């Protein structure tokens, strides 16, 4: 395996090598064939996605970066060009140049921090730009000699021409591949139905389309920058992947429409050099929305982390006491007509676990208990740590029978599992649970439910522990909890 030879980390390769080779060869062939179809002038395509697609494929799937994987990509390049009329010598030369650029980019990406690979930091786009420049330069040096052979350019002119073309394609295609969230997450993020909120969310994209239409109507070199404000609006509204897709679509359209004269531009004295300049401008234009989207994504992630730190217990991950009470009170208001159940849970003889296994053992028990209970709850349920080994659960929409059944499942699940202690040995734990409910239409406040559930919990512990007790909906006072 090439990654093992180079000492690079790789995911376990669970797919047969033949299947991987066919996947890589097929993707490279299709991407190359598309690029060949966009050759309006000269021998280089207006859009050549194959190199960026290959690089993104290898970065996202390091297990594909085997000797057979790279050879399959080589075969994909060769086959696509030969089937469309390319001569073998020139095709071989261009393919070596393409492979040189992709391999250079792969090695550089493997050295970069993981957050930079997925454009998750404000400086990630600048690092991406630096890697794309290295990719473009290595491919240009390897393939520039073909510029004189096929295009009549000298060595330096060939390097510049190839460098610009490769840089453009890398900058507009790679971000899409690096930020792709996966088909499952992408499908889950799509709106289930058309609504006013959906239309409002799509407004930046609609304005972007309108600005492109206006640019076509007006014409002139200045109109190339007309979609930029709308694209920046998109980068502030959508995730990095969506912004990358919109940027790629806009830049691809510009790269194809300019040589095809879809945008009226004044005739320039040196069309080829002017085309190089326009391509470079389009590539640099793509950096702006990508940088804004990356910074915005980092900001959103930081806010989410701060919110989680403020609202969740740092040890177990359950809601903190304050956040649990606040959300529970809001839940009661929302579910006033549907009823709500509350469970109070206390791990039995927790002090003995701490005394026997130390605080590390006690912490391990608390973490295991939270994981176990979380797996048995619904996404709409609230689970919080009230303090020490005492927890609470709010079950919206459940009556006493259903809530008692949930509590019994939790009790049995904990009783049936042993926990490996960090210091060695196993321990079995049990839990006592108090249950109370508020019927639909009642106005019992959350404090009253807490008192009732705590009273039921006290009765469960007083009756011998490791059991579920049902409490009244009101309680005058909470009795002290037994350890």
UniProtKB/TrEMBL annotation:
<feature type="transmembrane region" description="Helical">
    <location>
        <begin position="65"/>
        <end position="83"/>
    </location>
</feature>
<dbReference type="Pfam" id="PF00990">
    <property type="entry name" value="GGDEF"/>
</dbReference>
<protein>
    <recommendedName>
        <fullName>diguanylate cyclase</fullName>
        <ecNumber>2.7.7.65</ecNumber>
    </recommendedName>
</protein>
<feature type="transmembrane region" description="Helical">
    <location>
        <begin position="278"/>
        <end position="298"/>
    </location>
</feature>
<dbReference type="InterPro" id="IPR029787">
    <property type="entry name" value="Nucleotide_cyclase"/>
</dbReference>
<keyword id="KW-0472">Membrane</keyword>
<feature type="transmembrane region" description="Helical">
    <location>
        <begin position="90"/>
        <end position="112"/>
    </location>
</feature>
<dbReference type="InterPro" id="IPR043128">
    <property type="entry name" value="Rev_trsase/Diguanyl_cyclase"/>
</dbReference>
<keyword id="KW-0812">Transmembrane</keyword>
<feature type="transmembrane region" description="Helical">
    <location>
        <begin position="236"/>
        <end position="258"/>
    </location>
</feature>
<feature type="transmembrane region" description="Helical">
    <location>
        <begin position="159"/>
        <end position="183"/>
    </location>
</feature>
<dbReference type="InterPro" id="IPR050469">
    <property type="entry name" value="Diguanylate_Cyclase"/>
</dbReference>
<keyword id="KW-1133">Transmembrane helix</keyword>
<feature type="transmembrane region" description="Helical">
    <location>
        <begin position="16"/>
        <end position="34"/>
    </location>
</feature>
<dbReference type="InterPro" id="IPR000160">
    <property type="entry name" value="GGDEF_dom"/>
</dbReference>
<feature type="transmembrane region" description="Helical">
    <location>
        <begin position="203"/>
        <end position="224"/>
    </location>
</feature>
<feature type="transmembrane region" description="Helical">
    <location>
        <begin position="124"/>
        <end position="147"/>
    </location>
</feature>
<feature type="domain" description="GGDEF">
    <location>
        <begin position="338"/>
        <end position="473"/>
    </location>
</feature>
